[in-house]
Amino acid sequence: MTQIPFHGNRIINIEMPTDFSHENMHKEVAKQFSAPKSEFHIEILRQSLDARSKNNPHWKIRAVVWSETFSATEHISAPAIEFPQIGNKRRVIVIGSGPAGYFCALFAARSGFQVTIIEQGPNVEKRWQDVLNFEANSKLQEFSNYVCGEGGAGTFSDGKLTSRTKGIDVERNFIFKTYIEAGAPPEIDYLAHPHIGSNHLRKIMPKLREMFQNAGGEILFNCTVTDFENNQGSVRQIGTSQGFFEAEFFVFACGHSSMPAYRTLLGNGVRFAPKPFAIGMRVELPQQIVNEAQFRRKSLPGVKAAEYFLTTQAELPVYSFCMCPGGKVVPAMTQPGTLVVNGVSNYERNGAFANSAIVAGVDLRQLVNPEISAIQCLEWRENIERTAHKISSGTHNFAAPASRVTDFIQNKISLNLPNSTYPFPLVPDTYQELLPNKVLSALRTAMSDFSKKLHGFDQGILIGVETTTSAPIRTERDNQRRCVGFSNLFVAGEMSGWSGGIVSSAVDGIKVAQAICRL
Fold this sequence. Notes:
The protein is of the alpha+beta class. A seven-stranded mixed beta sheet has the order 13-14-17-12-20-18-19. The protein has a five-stranded parallel beta sheet with strand order 6-5-4-10-22, with helices on one face. Helices cover 29% and strands 25% of the residues. It has three domains: 8-67, Alpha-Beta Plaits (2-Layer Sandwich), CATH 3.30.70.2700; 91-273 and 474-518, FAD/NAD(P)-binding domain (3-Layer(bba) Sandwich), CATH 3.50.50; 276-466, no CATH class.
């Protein structure tokens, strides 16, 4: 909490207009306590938009009011995270610099370990230039793109910080405070649906890197892991493009799209099992349509842009995922000959279009084969990405299959497609060759339902294929989060299959570091 001159406090719940100012809020609180606003200090604990009544959308605010007239003090903050001090300077190697890898490395470094992050891509400054060059000149860099490089895939996203995981208040508090210290907007600490925005994340990553280095850590960029030495369940060194590295502990946190890293782990006896995940497409709409559907007006003062959350149960569960208001659809492949899309939005969310993944939940043990192996799950997903590329690459190497929502529902080819934020050409397609019939049937049923739930949804277009909502496999862990059968090897974050999104991945990385501290 901010340092203030008052000692007593009260927790209050108030409602404010969407375009309220802090001056307005102080006046409202002053009325409740019949006190001049100079006699108290307010800090927001929680702020969420209540738009259920289209005629009266408003913010619901939970705040702490500090005043010298209050004698009681309520407990209002999560305890600070504790860093156990390790005195023998053991070494930890972390592979990957996304949220899981970074927060694992930072926690371990502040606990006294010698920590090295190995990142196959460049720093975020070079990565951003490669992304711009990719869109301008169609030159894809395998280890420097929308998915790979410093910060991982989360760096080029909406930067959503929502998580449904329970019991992580201490870790969440540390993660948010770290982001704010590095330049994230302070509001992420209290908004119900916080986000940082891709434009901010690009600037935050160098500051996070500096924090890690100030804690004694080192980071090696453009360094690819090629193999590791497994000596009866004990890893002593890993081979990389920059030589061999020895350590007492190794953490793989490479994200859910790193096929080479998965193959390295599987080839060395790390056990993974199939798990449910989701596949589908990005649906893009003019943001104004979403605003009018949700707000009953073109815009809502004090609110950046409308969001939506849609779900239905068809032959398979279908739902919206990673909605990016005012954002754009981007090519998120990492390998030549594949096609994957994702969504990105800046902090301001002020673009003309909104996009969201619309995906069907699948379990390949039910959809394909009860005995399907982990590597077969990965190859099944990769085959869809290669098929998507094959369908559209006759027009452009990074063209994406697409369809109007109305045509997709009727299984018709679109005769023409509207403008889109996707930086490369779109190729009309029915998706019949691309996705299994059961998935297509569920998606068609769901999109017909969503068109009734969200007015104007049927005016959207489907773009590409989205296969990377989460990993299709999950590593088997012991009660210390180690890979089963290994004494010092860990897989963290989305690569492990045990987390999804920035916050839960960062928490998983912290918990892996805490487990290492106990060994």
